[in-house]
Amino acid sequence: MFVKMKTKTTYYSISTSMMLGILLLLVFTKTASAQQTKALASLDSSEIIIGQQVKLKLSIQYRVDNGKQIRIIWPQIEDTLRKEIEVVNKGKIDTIIDKNDPYLFTQSRILTITSFDSGYWAIPPFKFLAGDTNGIFTDPLLMQVSSIEVDTTQTIKDIKAPFEDTYTWLDWLKDNMNVIWIALGALIVLIILIYIFKYILKVKPPMVIVEAPMIPAHIIAFEKLEKLKSENLWQEGKLKLYHSKLTDIIREYIENRFKIQAQEQTTEEILFGFRNISIDEESRTKLKQTLILADLVKFAKEQPLPNENERSLAFSYDFINGTKREEDEENNKKISRD
Questions:
Q1: Integer Cα distance of 184 and 181 in angstroms
Q2: Pairing outcome for strands 104-114 and 47-49
Q3: Which of 20, 24, 37, 218 lies in disulfide reach of 324, CB 3.0 to 4.6 Å?
């Protein structure tokens, strides 16, 4: 019975010792981590005259071991550190890595401060938040602001009279060069305008332009078809050239007659363009057959029979005759009579 009591007491003693050891280790680790993170504040001068500016440097130094990131939260800087000390400029935060220790980082920031109240003013500590710490504070600073001393034993003196200085026309030119250049520029522009209105834009009698009467589209097409017919191209075996010229004449007629950009369109696009144009079905069919045969000759090396070549020319005549405008025909008759 006595042996069992002793064993249980020994077990509890060992467990308590282990827990205390772990707790001490955690406290030591956290203390060591906190010791490695330091916040500093310093003035480049602790004594200034009223209105004089001074640099206040804030920095925090910390370690980053095993790639573990530490979040640093800087203190919020307002426009005043206290009512007697104003912040003129807030510099940006710079981060520096120690060249001898790549895990040691330092963040710093420089504030420009001033004061317009004489006296001794304490700058309170700045609080940084780093990692899981409760806060790291800088030491407080003391700044002395002195007023400008006035020697009351000296008598009041008059303001010094202005220096006498000679002012020549060269000085006037130097002071008014901008005005002189503007005046010269305006004079040059005026001369140019006078020349333009006098010699270039002078009134000329209006030119009388006699416009030649417009030749109807079908007359132009018939003349070109007659010329093509006389060249005997397909009879000489020049089938591709013959059908190319034939379709060019038809495309030009379509552009002049129907205002369709047929010269830049394919056969399918031309036929699609006639979907809303009122022409008889026979003319539409002859146009389609002529254009399709020409495409086969030009792109598929088709060898049409002689009667097919003649039929394409006849279909072209028929298409133009079937779609020409009556008013163009009447105008053409008037031109012939005149």
A1: 5
A2: unpaired
A3: 218
Residue 16 confidence class, pLDDT cut points 50, 70, 90: low
**pLDDT exceeds cutoff 90 at 81:** yes
Give the position of tokens 């097409």: 221
Neighbours of 55 (CB within 10 A): 14
Q: Residue for token digits 């072209």? A: 316
At 296, the pLDDT band (50, 70, 90 cuts) reads very high
Check if the beta carbon of residue 308 is closer than 8 Å to that of residue 296: no
CA distance 258 to 261: 9
Which H/E stretch holds residue 90?
strand 85-90
Give pTM, 2 decimals: 0.38
User: Which tokens belong to 180?
Assistant: 């002189």
Mean pLDDT of 175-182: 85
Question: How far is CA 25 from each of CA 196, 214, 216, rounded to the nearest angstrom?
Answer: 98, 108, 108
Whether 41 and 141 have beta carbons less than 8 Å apart is answered as yes
What is the pLDDT, as a whole number, of residue 336? 52
Strand-pair partners of 112: 55, 89
Checking if the pLDDT of 66 tops 50, the result is yes
Alpha-carbon span 304 to 103, nearest angstrom: 89
- At residue 227, the 3 state secondary structure works out as helix
- HSE-CB at 44 with a 13 A cutoff on CA atoms is 11
Output 246 or 32, whichever has higher pLDDT.
Answer: 246
Residue 133 near residue 120 (C-beta atoms within 8 A): no
Dist CA 309 CA 325 (whole Å): 27
